[in-house]
Amino acid sequence: METEHLLDERIGQKQVDRVLDGFFAAAKERAERISSSYLSLWETLEKSTVGGKRLRPQIVLAAYTQLGGTDLEAAARVGAAFELLHTALIVHDDVIDLDFVRRGQDNVSGVYRRMAETAGEPAEVARHRGLSVGIIAGDLALTGAFRMLDSVTTDPGTRELLAGILDEAVFASAGGELIDVDFSFSPGAPPVTEILDMERLKTAVYSFEAPLRAGAVLAGAGADAVAALGRFGRDTGIAYQVVDDLLGVFGNESATGKSSMGDLREGKRTVLIAYAAQTPCWAELSGLIGRPDMCPGDADRAREILVDCGAQDYAQDLAAQYASSARSHLASSDVPAGLAAALDDIVSSSVNRGR
């Protein structure tokens, strides 16, 4: 039976790819009727979805199939909706962070900034063009997520529940993003608890809690099972984001696809920074981070401080604690053994990234 579920999940993942291919094919056909430049935007947006792990669709499919769901087309469409939401949020997040690269390649904004530079536009004009197109592209992916969810064949009650889950994911993520932006204007660093609340809202809800709950709801699972999976997703998502904070400073750029200086240069308020701000090391560290002109030597010194003051160890321990808490929710009698095993693997991969 477990082998059959694994096979179903693999088939479902291929169906997610086919659903997304169909979504982009239809969008490009519509766009081409408007203009060639609009077609190019959709082609760029589609390329930005290639190379990811499709984690959120995997989570939807795992919950759905292990809880007895059999309509893989419906599950694939729910998974595709969360993949489009992920695309929208990372495109907009890159705009907010003024990032033009993701996974070591130009992101949507980066592609259009480079096009403007190649056309001879001044640097500031090219930058503005890139960010503007990033906003447009993120909007398109976001509306596409809701359109995709609306295409799922299911009963009206389940459709309403799914729409509510997706809406809550967007609502929570936007709230978390705003809190993150507000933190950047604070002279010090907020407490660790506030950082964790922000990271749950910004990332854990849409990446783990909502996909798990959506897969369970689509499968017709009971309220207790949906709630247990939501708690598991919350703690897994927080562990995932704490590890992301660590990788943003100590990670190998070739492995993570992101700069190991970006968070430090931005002065991003993470668990690492919140912990360090409560130690005597903060006096020196606060003068190094958050500077657009930060050099590699300053970044190396900042990393040394984060190690010496115990921030790195603290963050690693915190991620392990949340991973352990996540696993405790899998002991619920409402979570089938096969699903518990699959989700245990997701916890492990979430906290062991970059190792």
From TrEMBL:
What Gene Ontology terms for biological process does this UniProt record contain? isoprenoid biosynthetic process
Kindly list the cofactors needed.
Mg(2+)
Q: Which UniProt keywords apply?
A: Magnesium, Metal-binding, Transferase
Molecular function (GO) terms for this protein are:
metal ion binding; prenyltransferase activity
InterPro entries according to UniProt: Isoprenoid_synthase_dom_sf, Polyprenyl_synt, Polyprenyl_synt_CS
Superkingdom in the source lineage: Bacteria
What family does the entry list? Belongs to the FPP/GGPP synthase family.
Q: What is this protein called?
A: Polyprenyl synthetase family protein
| Organism of derivation | Arthrobacter caoxuetaonis
